[in-house]
Amino acid sequence: MLQYAAPHTLLTEIKPMIAEGVRGFKCFLIHSGIDEFPHCTESDLHLAYQQLQGTDSVFLFHAEVEVDEELADSSSLADNAYDKFMLSRPEKMEIEAVKMVIKLCLQYKVRSHIVHLSAATALPLIREAQKAGAPLTVETCHHYLTLNSENVPDGATEYKCCPPIRTKQNQEELWAAVRDLSISMVVSDHSPCTAGLKCPDTGDFMKAWGGIAGLQLGLSLFWTSCKERGLSVSDLSDYMSANTAKHAGLQMRVGNTTPGLRGDLVIWNPEKQFTVTEDMIFHKNKLTPYLGMTLYGQVEKTIVGGEVVFDGQTGFTGAKPGQIFLN
């Protein structure tokens, strides 16, 4: 997927990029936090949708917009209070963004996708649009299905992501949407950063980097919750593999174990428990809100294109999965 980083300069390049094999385009509807990735206005979206009509490409959205109404007063809260950050990114921001995406999706009939949905209050709009024939898909993330705002300590900026982790009740409604396939994909939205960007000295949620690194633990996080909720290994495979492969147009190459497809497999023990510790984290910066959690599902080996790229005993093998995947 191509990050849709410069709206006005890239609009005329969409079709040539599709011809070169680009399968999708992502945009922000609010400031991304990085100046190099400006957000798109609604007029930008109309122009982009016009370029995407008649193609099988997908338009992906970070679905938050600025809202005109006054936000709840949080002046009495310290900047290291999680509640202050929550109040700065209310559900209304997601709801209004989802409304815009739905309107344009129905107008242009172009495949559209909401990335990392957090606000469950947007789900009735999504279900209604899907029933009306909108080619709209939605994903949520492991952190939204595992963590809740009631358990986020003040100053614990490793929990900060955008949109934010919301309440336990919100989490239950997201799970209901996973069950009824209103949400058909569960992803990591892996967003690592150096320790300094999380403002560890001050615990300032308003200044800290917004992102959680969850790729390594995703399978175990989701499976642990699936076990508690009566979902099967087959369900897990659909949400994390088959549905995502189909979404990217790769279902004839990857995503399931049909004979003739690429040999991309995880060998794992679904009943084995482990506790998340810092020394087991493979990503460079060991920041994670999952420290101390006990999870099910220990990965023994990861195989990409028939080649072992990770072994639970020895770690990564030196193979280059990116190159393997392109073969």
Automatic annotation (TrEMBL):
<dbReference type="Pfam" id="PF01979">
    <property type="entry name" value="Amidohydro_1"/>
</dbReference>
<protein>
    <recommendedName>
        <fullName>Amidohydrolase-related domain-containing protein</fullName>
    </recommendedName>
</protein>
<feature type="domain" description="Amidohydrolase-related">
    <location>
        <begin position="35"/>
        <end position="309"/>
    </location>
</feature>
<dbReference type="GO" id="GO:0005737">
    <property type="term" value="C:cytoplasm"/>
</dbReference>
<dbReference type="GO" id="GO:0004038">
    <property type="term" value="F:allantoinase activity"/>
</dbReference>
<dbReference type="InterPro" id="IPR006680">
    <property type="entry name" value="Amidohydro-rel"/>
</dbReference>
<dbReference type="InterPro" id="IPR011059">
    <property type="entry name" value="Metal-dep_hydrolase_composite"/>
</dbReference>
<dbReference type="InterPro" id="IPR032466">
    <property type="entry name" value="Metal_Hydrolase"/>
</dbReference>
<dbReference type="GO" id="GO:0006145">
    <property type="term" value="P:purine nucleobase catabolic process"/>
</dbReference>
<dbReference type="InterPro" id="IPR050138">
    <property type="entry name" value="DHOase/Allantoinase_Hydrolase"/>
</dbReference>
